[in-house]
Amino acid sequence: MSALRRKLLRQFWSLRGQALAIGVVIAGGLAMLIMSLSSLDSLTQTRDAYYRDYRFADVFATLKRAPESLRESIAAIPGVQQLETRVVAAVNLDIPDFGDPAKGMILSLPDGRNALLNSLHLRKGRLPEPWRDREIVINDAFAEAHGFVPGDRLAAIINGRWQELEIVGIGLSPEFIYHVSPGDLFPDFARFGIFWMNRSALSAAYDMDGAFNDVVLTLTRDARAGDVIDRLDLLLAPYGGQGAIARDDQLSHRYLDVELDQLRMMATVFPVIFLGVAAFLLNVVLNRLIGNERDQIAILKAFGYGNLEVGWHYLQLVLMISMLGLVIGTGLGVWFGQMLAELYQRFFRFPFIDFQVRPYVYSTGVLVTLGAATLGTLSAVARAVRLPPAEAMRPEPPPVFRATLAERLGLQRWFSQPTRMILRSIERRPLKAMLSMIGIAFACGILMVGRFQEGAIDYLISAQFNLAQRDDLMVTFTEPTSVRVLQELAALPGVWAVEGHRGAPAIVRFGNAHYRTALQGLEPDGTLRRLLDDELKLQPLPAEGVLLNDFLADYLGAARGDLVTVEFLDGRREVREVPVAGVVREFTGVAAYMTLESLNRLTGDGTAVTGAHLAVDARHRDEVVAILKDVPRVAGVSDRYTAISNFYESMADIVLTFAFIGTLLGASIAVGVVYNSARIALTERSRELASLRVLGFTRGEISYILLGELALLTLLAIPLGFLIGLGLIAYIIQGVESDLYRIPLVVGTSVYALAAGVVLVASALSGIIVARRLYNLDLVAVLKTRE
Amino acid sequence: MNEPASIRRRDTDEEVVFRARGLTKVYRMGEVEVHALRGVDLDLYRGEFVVLLGPSGSGKSTLLNILGGLDAPTAGEVICAGRDLVRISERELTQFRRHYVGFVFQFYNLIPSLTARENVAVVTEISTSPMAPEEALEMVGLKERMDHFPAQLSGGEQQRVAIARAVAKRPQVLLCDEPTGALDSKTGIIVLEVLERVNRELGTTTAVITHNAGIAAMADRVIHFSDGRIGQVETNEQRVSPQELHW
Predict the structure, then answer these.
(1) % residues pLDDT > 90 (chain A)
(2) Cα Rg for chain A, rounded, in angstroms?
(3) Is residue A577 predicted with pLDDT exceeding 90?
(4) Residues in A touching B125 (Cβ below 8 Å)
């Protein structure tokens, strides 16, 4: 081993504390990079393979009822490659030993075989045999939630008839990688099931012999989805077509896309922050080291080492520290990735998730890390390269200080000498102080990002379920029904309030923009379903006109006073112009609201409701649910309370995982910055501090001088960190904002407190570790040597 | 009782400030044991100016560090103000340094981020009845330059700031380790004048370490060191003023 190499190794060893602190920051960035890139990669690969192998459709259309003969006309649309007609129905479930209301969706399978498009992947059991009209396949998440295995039975109210069904298989389909019950926020596997049964059996139950109410199709390579959809909509309109959608708008696909976007964002934002901080720390450490080793650099050069050899010597040290980060970060990244993959497997139902870290992910990580480290230290290395040997022989010129701005303004009488030392040291190198502060501030910001979700979700839930949606049960009918049904519901035991509502599928147009949604008709003075403005104050329903939710208003570019066009997709398919009466705040979905009365008048088909909100005495809840299961007209019942608790249950793990990762990463930055700054301050000032000890200063007093600067920077960094945290959170929220859900920018006090607390504790611990070295300061030695 | 020659002074009834007995100090430098002090007995009296003279490595700095509470002897005792410095806690040693001793070092050891005045103030702020920093600086002839930072002062000026810093708290004893070692003779003499003035005007017991025999003539007593022991002790009947020194 060459002498220089040996020097390098010893130097690395003597810098091990700082190297580790920087390595951990690098590791944080790399871990996020590897986690998000590998998850992005694995999810994309798995999804694409799943779509391909199970022939996921490109276009989806729902209609009321069309004869099978229409199939030929659809197949003839240019660009259609394969198509499959289906019968799809919503059902109410009756699950043995399960008191909560549960709903389901039944899809037809061609008798005795798998679907041509959106084929089933069977996990267990088999497909229904031809002519067996009680056999069903259920989706695996539902089976898991209830512990169902092939051979078990459950009952469903199919078109008003209670029917016992036998589970013969457990499977999943690319159509339902992510599936939520309509109107729900998050998956509730126990209360929403997806079933497949033979087409003949399902058609018989729904009076769909020789007919269909759903069609899916794939496109030829050169076809344009928009064109095909336009033709398809024309064909289906007479049969109650509700507007076809392309794959991009399909719910499961959309959710997955939003998730992938989020991963893409994580793969850039966080690594940039972490590697930026690491580059800064490396720069500071290397600059100090080269300052201390001027005489050694001079001697090396005097004895004939070239400038580049000296430069390479120091660069190698940077690379060694980076390698440390690479090793830790890669391990952490794979671990985080697996943790995330496990979470994904719970929410995104794939036959398997092929979680793997492909070589390009590693090589990207290595390149980005080494690039950032080299870039960050280039100026310091260049300094070593350029240092002329003769100059390097002389000691580093003494640092030049001057009175700080505050002192020049005449405030110095407020400051003790130690405080002046602190202030002047900051002002002498303002850039370094500022970058340290920004580094600590980012730690604070990242801690906030890791923790904000819980509060935001609490806010969302409280807005959604305490202020807006206050019913105990929501009943959906199979079709528009006379308002008389409301009296029947009111007569059920324990029901003390009933409010009818109507959803009418429609396209809302304004200018060039249009959106397919459902117009919701509500009772004007209802208390169970209410609307809120952006300050979450109650927004009464106007007698005339429509209220758009904020997402729809933004999307259309429509504001109060504008006239929007509403094309109803149901019934008489009326087209109407309606004034916008206001905008309401909602965190999920896209909707427009008006009074039940005006909606009925607009659709022109008399007074009808499609569902009702119920307030039920808790003691009678189970009884009411049981009764409703047997009511033919009831397509489903949802239960607000179980929805919330279930939601919290399923979110708990996600929130914990992110909080854990966020805390780990945020704290690592705080420790990295504070520990390194303190170590460097110690190197630079040990002589000064020892002199003060000799002059009679206590250890506490010199610790104040050493750490006061960092304490001050940390305290200043925290408010800045709050701003950075808010900015990051806003950026993330904006990135995931979609028609599906919007996360409110609400950051609770506890988030601020916790972020500040972790930063303070991490800083204090780093400070204490360094301050302990002050106890071993060699007072005698420091007096002997010249600076 | 027969006292050793090394601790005898002109008038034995004068007040003893430091009383060291049987001081030994052994360092381990790797495999080697270095005997820096081999049994030193010494008394320092109030108001006297002592020069400790000896070649480098003779143990004089070690003695000074022990007297100043910076280092502990391997054996022996040092009594000052009724307490044995060898047996008191680290905290008490800090207090001892804070209130009783002024140090002047070869390399000044000023705080670069503080001006001359503040370098003095850093000590007066923690003392009980100090003189004003300005007064201390005036005494060393630097009143005009007291708002300069160390980087703006010459070596001699920096050393005078260091002396001002050492005496501003009115210490019982001023310990100077090669105070002129880094200075040329002209500047060195100015510094010695300051030390002499402090000793004369404030009556501060002053011990100056040097290997420069030329300085010895300005002392009350000259203690010769060699090989960790006190060799001979000379008493000058007449102190020579620094201007008349030459080396």
Answers:
(1) 44
(2) 33
(3) yes
(4) 416-417
DSSP A8-30: HHHHHHHTHHHHHHHHHHHHHHH
**Would B228 be classed as within a structural domain?**
yes
Q: Single out the residue of B82, B94, B87 nearest to residue B72, CA to CA.
A: B87
Identify the sign of the CA torsion A473, A478, A484, A485. Answer: negative
Is B111 close to A694, i.e. CB distance below 8 A? Answer: no
Under a CB-based contact definition with an 8 Å cutoff, are residues A217 and A84 in contact?
A: yes
Query: Tens of pLDDT along A219-238?
Result: 999 999 999 999 999 999 89
Measure B60 CA to nearest chain A CA, in Å: 13
For residue A195, the SS3 value is: strand
Written as six digits, the tokens of A319 are 């690379």
Give the DSSP letter string of A202-250.
HHHHHT-TTEEEEEEEEE-TT--HHHHHHHHHHHHGGGT----EEGGG-
Cβ-nearest to B105 among A397, A402, A783: A783
Looking at the 3D structure of chain B, how many domains does it have? 1
pLDDT tens for each residue of A749-771: 989 999 999 999 989 998 888 88
Residue B207 forms part of a structural domain: yes
Q: Report in angstroms the alpha-carbon separations of A610 from A507, A634, A764.
A: 18, 10, 61
Q: Tokens for A277?
A: 């901080």
B96's tokens = 């001892």
- Residue B151 has its nearest CB partner, among A398, A696, A785, at A398
The range of the structural domain enclosing residue B117 comes to: 46-69+97-244
Q: What residue in A sits closest to B121 (Cα-Cα)?
A: A417
- Note whether A429 contacts B: Cβ–Cβ < 8 A: no
Residues of A in contact with B126 (CB under 8 A): 696-697, 701
Q: CA dihedral defined by A294, A299, A305, A309, rounded to 10 degrees?
A: -20
CB contact under 8 A, B121 and A417: yes
For A422, nearest residue in chain B (alpha carbons)? B113
User: 């690491």: which residue's tokens?
Assistant: A278
CATH code, B146: 3.40.50.300
Asked whether residue B103 is domain-assigned, the answer is: yes
Beta carbons within 8 Å of A662's beta carbon, 6+ residues apart:
A446, A447, A449, A450, A451
In a domain, B92, yes or no: no
Residues A622 and A605: their CA atoms lie apart, in Å, by: 35
CB–CB of B90/A779 below 8 Å? no
CA distance linking residue A190 with residue A187, whole number of Å: 9
CA–CA separation, B218 and B49 (whole Å): 8
Q: Which residues numbered 356-415 in A keep a CB inside 8 Å of some CB on B?
A: 397-403
d(CA B79, CA B21): 9
User: CB distance A417–B118 less than 8 Å?
Assistant: yes
